[in-house]
Amino acid sequence: MAGIASRRAAEEMIRAGDVSVNGKVVTELGTKADPEKDHIKVRGKLINAKLKQRENVYILLNKPKGYLSSVSDPEGRKLVTDLVKGHGKLHPVGRLDYNTEGLIILTNDGEFTNHVAGSKKLPKVYSVKVKGLPTPVAIRKLTRGVTLDDGFKTAPAEIKTLKPTDKNGWYEVTLYEGHNQQIRKMFDAIGHSVVKLKRIRIGRIDDAGLKTGGHRKLSPDEVRSLTGKAPAKKA
Fold first, then answer.
1. Of 106, 77, 103, which Cα lies nearest the Cα of 6?
2. 79 has which bridge partners?
3. Which of 32, 56, 102, 209 has a beta carbon 3.0–4.6 Å from 199's, enabling a disulfide?
């Protein structure tokens, strides 16, 4: 939350003995500390001031294709963080595939990230174009849940059939869970590969008026709609 590292990298720093609380090195993950009372150091430097000074930021980005939902990439590919400048160090909340478009949130609030990314009650809605025209029976199979090639059993999905073209089916798919490339794998399981995929809504937040590649700040009401509580002014 001080903007020093991602959660995963922070865990490695803790295991390596780089973090101390009140002068005592802490290596056990999940150890509690209160920045209002405890002195927290990372590699010998006190981070309490960074926690007090930093303001939480919540940015909604309409991600284009060809951007990685990450803060770094050893292959040098373009990152979603490249599209949002001037707000300090941010990280994406969850992921969108490299070739998937649509809404993704960037923030510096770790607690918010854990809540939203881990929620199984928050609907995420996608516009999906597939190759060919699946039968109603095949679509009903997806709504009940299917076992993917990697053994993962998907939860029931809400699928609304939209107006198809002569060669392509169009659907609105609502998921309440996240699994790597889940929608693509779901339609692969019924023999109809995804041609185009775009996330158009997160909870009640949609992409109205937000052009591809554009971004805006979430309002306090929008943040509250995702977490059930108002955002704190200071971390």
1. 106
2. 68
3. 102
Backbone angles phi, psi at 137, to 5 degrees: -65, -40
- Cβ burial 84-96 (10 Å sphere, 16+ → b, else e): beebeebbbbbbb
Are the folds of 58-120+206-227 and 124-202 the same?
Answer: yes
Q: What confidence tens digit (pLDDT) does each residue in 40-57 have?
A: 999 998 888 776 666 889
User: Coil, strand or helix: which one is 115?
Assistant: helix
Which among 97, 109, 206, 207 is annotated as catalytic?
97
The band of 235, judged by pLDDT with boundaries at 50, 70 and 90, is: very low
Annotated catalytic residue 73: no
pLDDT at 54: 67
Q: CATH for 58-120+206-227?
A: 3.30.70.580
pLDDT value of position 231: 61
DSSP state of 176: S
Amino acid at 151: G
- Is residue 103 classed exposed, middle or buried when 0-12, 13-18 and 19+ CB atoms within 10 A define those classes? buried
Distance of alpha carbon 134 from alpha carbon 234, whole angstroms = 50
103, two tokens: 């809404």
Q: Which residues, in sequence order, are bridge partners of residue 55?
A: 234
| Domain 124-202 CATH class label | alpha beta
d(CA 233, CA 235): 7
Residue that has been written with the tokens 């999906």 in this structure: 128
**Which tens digits make up the pLDDT trace of 184-203?**
999 999 999 999 999 999 99
57/159 Cα distance (integer angstroms): 33
Is 0.85 topped by the overall pTM? no
